[in-house]
Amino acid sequence: MNISDKVINRLTLYHCILTDYLEKNIEYISSPQIANLLKIDDSQVRKDLKYLNNIGKCRVGYKVVELRESIEHTLGFQNTKNCFIVGAGNLGLALAKYDDFLNYGLNILALFDNDPIKVDMSLNDKKVFHIGILPDLVKKYNVEMAILTVPKKYAQEVTDFLVDAGIKYIWNFTPCILKAPDDIKIWNENLMSGCLQFTAHNKKEE
Amino acid sequence: MNISDKVINRLTLYHCILTDYLEKNIEYISSPQIANLLKIDDSQVRKDLKYLNNIGKCRVGYKVVELRESIEHTLGFQNTKNCFIVGAGNLGLALAKYDDFLNYGLNILALFDNDPIKVDMSLNDKKVFHIGILPDLVKKYNVEMAILTVPKKYAQEVTDFLVDAGIKYIWNFTPCILKAPDDIKIWNENLMSGCLQFTAHNKKEE
DNA sequence: TAGATTGTTAATCGATTAACAATC
DNA sequence: TAGATTGTTAATCGATTAACAATC
After folding, report:
1. DSSP codes of every residue in A164-195
2. CB under 7 Å from any atom of strand D: which residues?
3. How far off is chain A from B177, nearest CA to CA, in Å?
4. pTM score, whole prediction
5. Least crowded by CB within 10 Å, which of A27, A96, A138, B17?
6. Phi, psi (5° rounding) for residue A33?
7. Separation of alpha carbons B132 and A102, rounded Å
8. Which residues contact B109 (CB under 8 A, 6 or more apart)?
C-alpha cells in the first residue's frame, strides 16, 4: 500500500495535534475536531486514518495514544535511519543542532566539509569530518542518506561523489536540480516554495 | 487566476533549471528537456508554462531569459515582502543568515526574542530586538509576515501576540498547529514531511 | 521535406467532498 | 430515545497523461 505525499503530510500534522492532546491528557479525539483545527473536511480525516488500521468508536472518536502510535509506526519513526550532513555552512550547522529530527526517526551522525577550519569542530555530539573520509564512514556506519547543504556551485560535483560512495537518498537543500542514476532518490527541499504559496496566492486578487 | 500549490512548486524547480541554463549561456530550453531533468511528463511542463503567458517556438522551445523572468514575475519575486523572524534560536539564526530568501522576494528585516542575552546581537545586518517592541516595528515598517521559530511551548502564545500586533502571514516552523482568526494565513513548514516521503515510501515493499 | 516541438483537447487517474446507514 | 460519530460508498472536482494537429 502506497501512501501519497499529501496523506503523509497530513499525517504529520495530525501527529502534532495528537502530541498536544496527549500533553493535555485528553483521551479521545474525533475526526471533526482534527478537521476544524486544520480547516479541512472531516471525511478526509477519517479516510486518512483508514491507512493506519486503527478503529474509532462511534460517538467518542479515536484513542489519542493509540492513534499517535499508529502514525509513528506507519511513518516509520521507530526504525531510525542514519544520516550525514554534507556541507557545514549555516544551514548545515542549524540542521545539525535541530534535535527534533531524532523524534521522527532521523539520526544525524556527523557533518562533512572540505574547509580545514571547519573540520574537527563539534556540535551537539556531532563532529565535522573532512569530506574525503566520507566513503569510509558510509560503509562503516551503513549510512544511506545524506542531507546536502553545500554551496550551489559544488552541488552536482558533491552529488556524484555521494553516489559513488554508496549514498541512496539525498535530501537536497541546494537550489539545484541534481542529476543522478535512477535508483538514487532525491527530495528537493524548496523552502521558499511553501512560503510562496501564501504570498503568491494573493496575486489573484489584483 | 489561481495557481495551485503543485504548480507553484514545479515553477520554482523550473526556475532553478533556468538559472542553471542562463549561467551556461544556453539560449533556448524545450519542455522535454525540463521534463527529463525532473522526471515528469513534458505536456505537464507545457501546461504549467501556460500560466506564464509566455510563447514558445516550435522546434526550438522557450527563451531561457524570458521564461525565467516570467516565473519571477508570476511568483512575485520582484515585489519584496518585509518579514520578521520571531525566535532567535538555532533555526531562527540560520534562516536569518540564509541570504537566498531575498532572491525570492523575502526581505528579513530583523529578529525578535525575549532572552536578554540574545537581544542586541547582530548578524548579516539583522539585529535581534526584544519581542516587546515588535508591535511598534510592525507598524513602523509595515511588516505583514512573521517567521515563527520559537520553542514549541510558546508557539500559541506568541501567535496570539503576533496577531494582535497586526501580522497577517505566519510561516510556522514549530511542530504545533496554531489557532488564529480566519483572515490570518498560516503555512505550516514541516521539514520532516518531505523527507518522510522517501523514507516512508519504502514501507510498501515490505 | 522530415523531424522536433508547441499548444490544446480528450482521456485517465487520483484526491476531495458529500451523503448516509450503522453504531453506541 | 436523540444525537454524535464512524466507516464507506457515490459524486464531484482537479491534476496528470496521452494524443495529435499546427508550426517552423
Report:
1. HHT--EEEE-SSS-----TTSEEEE--HHHHH
2. A 30-33, 42-43, 46-47, 49-50, 55-62; B 4, 6-7, 40-41, 43-44, 47, 57-59
3. 6
4. 0.93
5. A27
6. -65, -50
7. 33
8. B82, B83, B84, B126, B137, B141, B143
Task: Answer yes or no: do A192 and B94 touch at CB < 8 A.
Answer: no
- Alpha carbon A81 to its chain centroid, in Å, reads 11
Name which of A2, A9, A97 is nearest B90 (Cβ-Cβ): A97
What is the residue-level pLDDT of chain A in tens, covering all 206 positions?
Answer: 689 999 999 999 999 999 999 999 999 999 999 999 999 999 999 999 999 988 899 889 999 999 999 999 999 999 899 999 999 998 999 899 888 899 999 999 999 999 999 999 998 899 999 999 999 999 999 999 999 999 999 999 999 999 999 999 999 999 999 999 989 999 999 889 888 987 875 444 33
- Tracing cell 550547522 back to the chain, one arrives at A93
CA distances from residue A166 to A78, A184, B191 in whole angstroms, order as listed: 24, 10, 24
Alpha carbon B14 to its chain's center: 15
* Cβ atoms A171, A148 nearer than 8 A: yes
* C-alpha cell recorded at residue B185: 494565513
Would you tell me how many other CB atoms lie within 10 Å of the CB of residue B18? 24
Q: What type of residue sits at position B42?
A: D
DSSP state of B175: S
The verdict on a CB contact (< 8 Å) between A196 and B104 is yes
CA/C1' separation A46–D5 (Å): 11
Residue B8 burial (CB count, 10 A): 23
Give the residue among B195, B32, B18 at the shortest CA–CA distance from A186. Answer: B195
